[in-house]
Specification:
Length: 304
C-alpha cells in the first residue's frame, strides 16, 4: 500500500512538471540563417598547346614498280616546237552571188547584182553592177545612173597582199520645169552627162619585216568629165599615199605617212588648172591597255 502511494506521488510530480514546462500561449517561429543558392561546379577547361610538332627528318622510302620494257624501244621525250598562232580572219570566205530587180511608179527599172569568185584563201574576186532610171510626169523629168566595179585581192606566198579595183560610173540628168512651157528646147540642150573612170591599187605586208616595219602604199586614179550643152570639162586626180610603221616595243611605235595629191582640171575653152598637194606626217604612238596617245605634225605645201 505504501509502495502504491509512492508511485502515484512520483507520477503526479512528473506529470505536473511536464505540464508546467509546456507554454501553449507562445507562437511558433522558424529562424532562417541563410538562403540556399544552387551553384554548379566549374568544368575543367582543356588547355591547347600551340607549339608546332617536331619536324620529322627521316627520309621517306618510296618504292617504284617499273614494268619491263618488252619492246626494244627506249622512252625518249619528244621535242617541243613553238607554232605561230594563225591570224583570226573573223569568218571564212564564201562565194556569194545575188541579183535584185525592181520596178515602181517612179523608178523604171532597178537592177543590182553582185558576184564573187576565188578560192577564199589566196584569191578573191568581186563584180558589182547597179542601174536605175526614173521618169516623172513633166517633160524631160527623167534621170539614170549606172555603175560597174571589179575588185580583186591576191595573197602571195611571201606574205604580201595585192588589192585593186577598177570602176565606171555614168550619170545622166535633164533640166526640166522651165517656165513658160511655150519655150522649146532640144534634148541635147537639156541633157547633162557625167562620167567617172577610176582605179585603185594597194600593197601591204601581212607580217612585219625583219626590221619590224609595216607598210601599205596605195595609189588611186580617177578621171571625171561632164557635158552640159556646149560646155565640157575634164578633171583627172591621182593620189599616192605611203604609210610606214616601225614598232619600237610593245607600247611605242613610229609612223610616217607620205601623201601626194595631184589634180588637173581642163575646161573646154580656158587654160588648164593644176592643184598639187604634198604632205609628210610623222607621228609617235603610245598604246597601253587603257590609254592611247598619238603625237605628230603634218607639214603640207601646195604647188599650183
Amino acid at each position: 500500500m505504501i509502495i502504491i502511494k509512492r508511485f502515484l506521488i512520483v507520477v503526479l510530480v512528473f506529470s505536473s512538471s511536464a505540464v508546467y514546462s509546456q507554454d501553449t500561449t507562445r507562437k511558433k517561429t522558424i529562424d532562417i540563417t541563410s538562403s540556399f543558392k544552387p551553384v554548379l561546379k566549374e568544368a575543367a577547361k582543356i588547355n591547347f598547346n600551340a607549339a608546332p610538332p617536331a619536324a620529322d627528318g627521316r627520309r621517306p622510302v618510296l618504292k617504284y614498280n617499273i614494268p619491263a620494257q618488252n619492246l626494244l624501244l627506249s622512252y625518249q621525250p619528244l621535242a617541243i616546237r613553238p607554232v605561230a598562232l594563225q591570224t583570226d580572219s573573223g569568218a571564212s570566205w564564201q562565194n556569194s552571188n545575188y541579183i535584185k530587180l525592181g520596178v515602181g511608179n517612179v523608178i523604171l527599172p532597178f537592177v543590182q547584182t553582185g558576184f564573187s569568185f576565188g578560192d577564199g584563201k589566196n584569191t578573191f574576186y568581186n563584180v558589182f553592177a547597179n542601174h536605175h532610171s526614173a521618169k516623172g510626169d513633166l517633160p524631160f523629168q527623167k534621170n539614170s545612173r549606172t555603175d560597174v566595179t571589179i575588185a580583186a585581192t591576191y595573197k602571195t606566198p611571201s606574205n604580201l597582199e595585192w588589192s585593186g579595183k577598177i570602176g565606171f560610173l555614168s550619170q545622166q540628168y535633164f533640166l526640166y520645169g522651165y517656165q513658160p512651157r511655150s519655150l522649146e528646147y532640144t534634148k541635147d540642150q537639156l541633157r547633162q552627162r557625167f562620167q567617172t573612170f577610176g582605179g585603185k591599187l594597194s600593197l601591204r605586208n601581212l607580217e612585219p619585216t625583219e626590221f619590224g616595219v609595216n607598210y601599205h602604199p596605195t595609189i588611186r586614179i580617177s578621171v571625171f568629165n561632164g557635158t552640159n550643152d556646149i560646155k565640157k570639162a575634164t578633171e583627172a586626180n591621182s593620189v599616192l599615199y605611203v604609210p610606214i610603221e616601225k614598232r619600237i616595243n610593245d607600247n611605242f611605235a613610229f609612223n610616217l605617212g607620205l601623201t601626194a595629191d595631184l589634180t588637173n582640171f581642163r575646161p573646154r575653152d580656158t587654160a588648164t588648172i593644176q592643184n598639187n598637194l604634198y604632205s609628210v606626217a610623222p607621228a609617235l604612238n603610245y598604246v597601253t591597255d587603257n590609254l592611247s596617245i598619238t603625237a605628230g605634225v603634218i607639214p603640207t605645201w601646195q604647188n599650183k
